[in-house]
Design a protein that fits this description.
By secondary structure, the protein is α/β, with parallel strands linked by helices. A 5-stranded mixed beta barrel has the order 6-9-7-8-12.
């Protein structure tokens, strides 16, 4: 049986100011179709044959946001594992593997990051079927995307051949442009998608060989976990003691049992604002506009207006993202460097890196309308059949 595992613990700092640490990109309607990337990922699992309810691994700070977005999927939603802190993909996947191993040792994990866009569900399902057959044999399988241009923001996988599934020769870090051009023309190199399939017992054996300490800590984190409402809280001390490392470094680059399944370019990890051009249709001038935008003499730009009119004149190759509390203006060629702004915000202790003006709670949400030295005005929205918590404040007055 296939056990989908959705990794929803990322932040997506390169999509700031739309993505924040408390409202990450996977929880945002990036495509403008009324569904978040997390919901889109969940729905890709619904059409898979013999698929068990999906397990979600997310940061404990996002638990109510994730639960709210997945509440309508009923029995298709399985366990929600809560990470006390971000520890990269090895810890998240190993904890999910232990959790599934207890139910079905030979169950096959289908690991899917929640912040990817897949444009053709049928092709995706056919590739999963191929990968599942290989994973059932005990192989560590990943999905490689056939590159269409020399992307320097992705890692690459060199495969042994052009078969549907082939042995992995090596993993390559994000290359310089000239090297990326060589990889694309070579034909044996694929983009590293970060999606995997492996049997739970086979994966845990690989961890036993290559990272026994992480294996022990993840087993403890799962065995000593606590059920809290609809969530499973992984044990804090064990999880916090783990090394922050990817599944690629821990297992995939070391094992002799790794294979890659080739997938056409129906995939986008939406890792930066420049990637938006790949998932939206541009106009005749190469522009993509979202929201209330008036543009004149504007070319090859991405402009998003969230709450007010944004107008442009005589610009080219720019990214303009306007939210209620922050504005980003950047050259498209520097899209990968938005994280530098986020790092600066962190160093200054700025709230704009963490939360939007709109904040979600178990009972609904609130939006900050105005804030000053000794006051804050909010618009509160309570979801149907929910109620606010009762509380008393000794140092402030509240008017409703």
């Amino acid at each position: 049986m296939i056990y989908p595992v959705i990794l929803a613990g990322g932040v997506g700092s390169r999509l700031w100011p739309l993505s924040r640490s408390q409202f990450p990109k996977q929880c945002i309607d990036i495509q403008g179709n009324g569904k978040t990337m997390l919901q889109e990922t969940f729905e890709r699992c619904l059409g898979l044959p013999s698929a068990a309810p999906a397990t979600i691994v997310c940061n404990q700070d996002h638990r109510f946001l994730v639960a709210e977005q997945c509440k309508n999927y009923g029995n298709a939603l399985g366990d929600i594992l809560l990470e006390p802190q971000g520890k990269n993909t090895a810890a998240a996947i190993a904890c999910a593997a232990w959790n599934i191993y207890k139910k079905d040792p030979s169950g096959v994990l289908l690991v899917l990051p929640s912040d990817h866009v897949i444009s053709d569900k049928k092709i995706f399902e056919s590739k999963v079927e191929i990968a599942n057959a290989r994973a059932e044999l005990g192989l560590m399988v990943t999905f490689g995307i056939e590159p269409t241009y020399p992307e320097t923001g992705y890692g690459y996988i060199k495969s042994e051949g052009a078969d549907q599934s082939s042995k992995i020769i090596k993993f390559v870090e994000k290359p310089e442009l000239n090297l990326a051009k060589e990889y694309v023309s070579n034909g044996d190199y694929l983009w590293n998608s970060g999606m995997f399939m492996f049997r739970a017992d086979a994966l845990l054996e690989e961890f036993k060989q290559y990272s026994p300490e992480l294996l022990q800590l993840t087993e403890r984190a799962v065995s000593e976990s606590k059920v809290d409402l609809d969530f499973i809280r992984l044990e804090v001390d064990a999880f916090s003691s783990m090394e922050s490392i990817s599944i690629d470094y821990t297992v995939m680059e070391k094992t002799d049992n790794a294979e890659v399944v080739r997938m056409p370019n129906i995939w986008n990890d939406v890792g930066s604002w420049s990637a938006m051009h790949d998932i939206h249709e541009a106009d005749s001038d190469g522009n993509i506009f979202k929201g209330d935008v008036i543009a004149k003499q504007t070319k090859n730009s991405f402009v998003m207006a969230s709450n007010r009119l944004v107008s442009t004149l005589g610009i080219e190759d720019l990214i303009i993202i306007d939210t209620e509390d922050a504005l980003l203006v950047a050259n498209k060629n520097n899209a990968q460097d938005v994280k530098k702004i986020v790092d600066e915000l962190v160093s200054r202790g700025r709230d704009e890196v963490n939360v939007h003006a709109e904040v979600f709670r178990p009972w609904g949400k609130y939006q900050t309308i105005d804030i000053g030295g000794r006051y804050q005005v909010k618009r509160i929205s309570v979801s149907p059949q929910q109620r606010l918590s009762t509380q008393m404040h000794h140092h402030r007055a509240e008017h409703w």
